[in-house]
């Protein structure tokens, strides 16, 4: 009997990792394909903890329970999923989601392909575990991962970190990205120095904007159409890049960065467009009157208007704009418009074409001013919207087609009216229609360039003989380029001649460029030497996983 017990004890002590091999093998695979980043220290501690021998069965069960909890927590921390801070800070907003919308989001997290591969690994382990000491291979591979950086450092000659140079021309693309040509020599410290220099540079930038207008200036109206959930990548993924309305604009910005993936901060950045780009937290530190484009236009005699296809209550959207960006325009009531969609929080969303036509009627009758500046904010393309009396959300593409068709109708009606208008379509962010390697489709917690590169477009009405095809602004731009364009149209009295006071190419020449840097409360994504990097709160800069 004693011999049997001793054999059992020996088998218990030297059983290896057992089914934990599957856990580590799957993590190694996910890390290889950049779906998560391994924390070698914590994984090593977990591995050693699992291998600790316990004679007592209660302690053994306790060890297993602690290991399971630690393993799940470790995977979560190594993944790209929203951190606890992000979830807590957005808890109130999440509570406003409808049950159906939450269920749909949960389904998006399920990756059938990954589940199939996981099942295959488990079955393979069960087939070979009695013939192969898998624990040995797991531990050897883990040790290789541990010592790999030291081997690379031994093989690589040390490279002195490059200095960060900041351009002194307000029209330049800001800090020069001078760094070693070898990507492996670019460190988190290198990128952090550049990011700090970028913010220092941007805080002092100001757009070209007139302080006053000449007495013979030709009045025109300005429309800032802020659209939720429409990026260049969304248009590509939905096969809508060739929608006819897009070719009717006079100016297209090919690489315009909205700098965030959420509505509130996107509109705050738009309303503060006269100044350079600040970090996310600075948006909420207080007002910057010299930066507020609506109020700067108000000082030039422009009467402010505000039209939404929603009530502006979710996430305290409208009040935040008033408190942090000084938005003074009264909100036009949505009660008179027909309902087009029901939002993810069951709010009614008005028909956008009805909103646009109401603006046409009201401003045309307004004889108190010849100059109007109007902010539209439309959320018809926001994820989770559904048709009234429908429980399932409407796909993005049919909603996008409907919106673009309505926009085209509005533009044709505005053209026929003969009014002099500068229409600027400036989306807030994308809809993340197809997601990427680290973020599921329809989620926008990480402001990737796929989400924040949006199609800013400009159309002039009441001006003849403009080029038949859009003029493309090909550099990396952001809100300062938009406000500079408005400032030039004002300063040059662009509507003072039938064909525009200057050629359209001259109007867009040397618009200020801005390096691609996008931020939310928990994440920053930037482009450095043609590669994207991400930093999540409290972490280091890491390469943004590329599509394979």
**Assigned CATH superfamily of the largest domain:** Alkaline Phosphatase, subunit A
| Architecture per CATH nomenclature, i.e. the level-2 architecture of the largest domain | 3-Layer(aba) Sandwich
What is the CATH domain class of the largest domain? Answer: Alpha Beta
Q: Count the domains.
A: 2
Give Rg in angstroms.
Answer: 28 Å
**How would you write the strand order of the largest sheet?**
3-6-1-7-8-2-9
Helix content: 40-55%
As residue ranges, the low-confidence spans are 1-14, 159-163, 165-173
Average pLDDT figure:
87
Number of strands: 13
Structural class: alpha/beta
For the largest beta-sheet, the strand count, sense and barrel status come to: 7 strands, mixed
| Termini gap | 58 Å
What's the shape?
elongated
Q: What's the total helix number?
A: 19
Q: Output the CATH topology of the largest domain.
A: Alkaline Phosphatase, subunit A
Q: Please indicate the percent range of residues in DSSP E strands (runs of 2 or more).
A: 5-15%
């Amino acid at each position: 009997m004693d011999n049997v017990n001793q054999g059992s004890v020996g088998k218990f002590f030297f059983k290896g990792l057992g089914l934990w091999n599957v856990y580590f093998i799957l993590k190694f695979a996910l890390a290889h394909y950049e779906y998560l980043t391994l924390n070698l220290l914590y994984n090593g501690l977990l591995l050693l903890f699992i291998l600790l021998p316990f004679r007592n069965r209660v302690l053994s069960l306790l060890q297993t329970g602690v290991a399971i909890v630690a393993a799940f927590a470790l995977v979560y921390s190594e993944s790209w999923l929203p951190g606890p801070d992000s979830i807590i800070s957005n808890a109130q907003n999440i509570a406003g989601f409808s049950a159906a919308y939450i269920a749909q989001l949960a389904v998006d997290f399920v990756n059938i392909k990954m589940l199939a591969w996981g099942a295959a690994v488990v079955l393979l382990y069960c087939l070979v575990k009695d013939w192969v000491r898998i624990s040995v291979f797991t531990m050897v591979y883990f040790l290789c991962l541990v010592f790999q950086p030291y081997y690379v450092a031994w093989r690589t000659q040390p490279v002195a970190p490059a200095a960060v140079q900041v351009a002194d021309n307000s029209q330049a693309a800001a800090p020069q990205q001078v760094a070693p040509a070898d990507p492996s020599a670019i460190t988190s410290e290198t990128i952090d120095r550049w990011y700090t220099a970028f913010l220092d540079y941007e805080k002092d930038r100001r757009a070209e904007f007139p302080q006053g207008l000449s007495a013979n200036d030709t009045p025109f109206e300005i429309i800032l159409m802020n659209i939720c959930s429409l990026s260049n990548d969304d248009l590509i993924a939905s096969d809508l890049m060739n929608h006819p309305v897009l070719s009717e604009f006079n100016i297209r910005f090919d690489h315009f960065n909205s700098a965030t993936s959420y509505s509130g901060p996107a509109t705050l950045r738009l309303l503060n467009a006269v100044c350079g780009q600040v970090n996310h937290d600075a948006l909420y530190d207080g007002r910057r009157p010299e930066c507020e484009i609506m109020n700067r236009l108000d000082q030039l005699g422009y009467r402010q208007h505000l039209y939404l296809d929603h009530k502006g209550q979710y996430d305290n959207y409208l009040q935040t704009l008033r408190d942090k960006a000084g938005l003074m325009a009264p909100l036009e009531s949505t009660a008179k418009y027909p309902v087009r969609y029901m939002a993810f929080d069951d709010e009614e969303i008005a028909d956008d074409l009805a909103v646009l036509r109401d603006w046409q009627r009201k401003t045309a009758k307004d004889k108190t001013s010849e100059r109007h500046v109007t902010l539209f904010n439309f959320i018809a393309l926001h994820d989770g919207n559904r048709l009234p009396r429908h429980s399932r959300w409407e796909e993005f593409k049919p909603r996008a087609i409907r919106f673009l068709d309505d926009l085209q109708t509005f533009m044709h009606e505005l053209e026929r009216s003969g009014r002099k208008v500068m229409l600027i379509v400036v989306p807030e962010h994308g809809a993340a229609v197809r997601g990427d390697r680290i973020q599921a489709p329809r989620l926008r917690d990480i402001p990737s360039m796929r989400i924040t590169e949006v199609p800013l477009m400009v159309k002039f009405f009441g001006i003849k003989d403009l080029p038949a095809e859009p003029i493309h602004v090909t550099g990396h731009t952001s809100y300062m380029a938009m406000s500079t364009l408005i400032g030039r149209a004002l300063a040059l009295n662009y509507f003072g001649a039938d064909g525009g006071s200057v050629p359209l190419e001259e109007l867009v020449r040397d618009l200020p460029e801005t390096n691609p840097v996008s931020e939310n409360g928990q994440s920053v994504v930037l482009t450095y030497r043609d590669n994207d990097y991400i930093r999540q709160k409290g972490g280091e800069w890491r390469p943004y996983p590329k599509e394979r």
